[in-house]
UniProtKB/TrEMBL annotation, chains A, B:
InterPro entries reported in the protein's UniProt record: PCD_sf, Pterin_deHydtase
Enzyme class: lyase
HAMAP family linked to this entry: Pterin_4_alpha
Taxonomic superkingdom: Bacteria
Organism: Psychroflexus salis
UniProt family annotation: Belongs to the pterin-4-alpha-carbinolamine dehydratase family.
GO biological process: tetrahydrobiopterin biosynthetic process
Protein name per its UniProtKB record: Putative pterin-4-alpha-carbinolamine dehydratase
Known catalytic reactions: (4aS,6R)-4a-hydroxy-L-erythro-5,6,7,8-tetrahydrobiopterin = (6R)-L-erythro-6,7-dihydrobiopterin + H2O
Entry keyword annotation includes Lyase: yes
EC number: 4.2.1.96
Length: 94, 94
């Protein structure tokens, strides 16, 4: 899978809420009510990540969750990352 | 709760496997077989963290898990962190 061009990535994340592109990955930060809400969201994302065979780099502390997506094999952001970001948005905010 | 002294922390983590003390927190890295194993471990830790009302800062990517423990209110490592590290070790390796 080929990495997307910068313009393609920036156009794609305009359709999402709260994602930024830098350092060859797309990133978001989400704040939840508390740890249980944050970890519940992580669990839902984990199942989707496993199903898509595409896993985030993510950091959690209490109610904060930071997620970075990139496709290591491709050396950048691919359509798989855009799909995973879209899945996360759908899971959490729809 | 008072932060522990450097010597107390270093003595306490000698009884644990793979923990280091630096930057005012204790840290470990654990490698699992795959994402499912890593996230299963995180889930077990999450329930304990919630029960102890003491939450890690942790980063996961695929089969890798990095955990940092400190007590923000105390500005350092306290007995709560040693207890959580011990809990994690017991959960995962015993």
């Amino acid at each position: 899978m080929e990495p997307l061009q910068k313009e393609e990535i920036e156009k794609a994340i305009q359709n999402l809420d709260g994602w930024e592109y830098n350092e060859n990955a797309i990133h978001t930060k989400i704040e939840f009510k508390n740890f249980k809400e944050a970890f519940s969201a992580m669990t839902r994302i984990a199942f989707e990540a496993e199903a898509q065979a595409h896993h985030p780099e993510w950091t959690n502390v209490y109610n904060q969750l930071e997620i970075s997506l990139s496709t290591h094999d491709a050396g950048g952001v691919t359509q798989k990352d855009i799909e995973m970001a879209t899945t996360i948005e759908t899971l959490l905010f729809n």
